[in-house]
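Sequence in, structure out. First:
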Amino acid sequence: EDGYFYVVDRTKDLIIRGGYNVYPREIEEVLYEHPAVAEAAVIGIAHDSLGEEVGAAVTLKKGQSVDPDELRDYVKARVAAYKYPRRIWLLDELPKGATGKVQKRDITAPTGESAPHGDSHDPTRRADIRPGNPSKERDGLVPESRPSGPGYRSY
């Protein structure tokens, strides 16, 4: 309507953590290798200094139990240091659409999830692009000032 397109799903399936690219699918596949994990969804969570932090929502197989710290250590041993999820939380089930596909846009990190000490992230901020925002700005991630001067152009 009004000539605008509104992004209501992922515009990219990529997390940029401090300038490094992290592909959620790669981390999800490592989580699926853990014997207690039934489902996993890896998302980017807004972070003040890094831009985004890696987070994972995980459901466990029936009768299984595992600590989020154990899952973090499991992934950390199998991927590069900048890729492992710093925030992991357990859910009874992941949100799914009518076709059964996990709806990552409906996943937010709870306030009490497992995180290493010293993490200054505000978990109440959404990690996804807000529907109906035609400027596609990320929550709190757009720089207040842009570089200017020789060598920089505005488009």
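Second:
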Amino acid sequence: NAAAGYNGGGTGSTSWPCAGGGATHIATTSGLLSNLSENKTAVLLVAGGGGGAKQGKGGAGGGANMNGENGNGSGGGSLSGGGYSNTSTGCLSGSFGQGANGANCLDNGGGGGYYGGGTGGGAGGGSGYCDTNKFTCSGTTGGSASYGSISVSW
């Protein structure tokens, strides 16, 4: 299996070894984003990681309060739940702070994010997040030829 991106990237499989990229986050407590699922109020900012590509398509990670992009067969994470997987047996959806692992269905890994991307085909990207009670944020989700961006002010 392909190694996953640090902080929530899903693992790839031996057949499709593209792992998901990990999220970048800032929180008031230390630790991996997935370990803060019971303390979401500690999370201030999240930039989503991209999903592992298959047939030229892996979903880009989401910018500030933006969903991750869908992959070629699976969904990007949103602000309220993990990205869906396709209907392949054993494929999983993403979860808080964690992209789905592709090893279960011999596919690529989902991107980490506030909620991670699903797997099964080109994997979905993870969603981004901004605590709008503390910051003013804007941003974009990257595409096949560009990087995502985020702008934060307080």
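Remark: The beta strands are 24-27, 43-47, 129-130, 136-140, 149-153.
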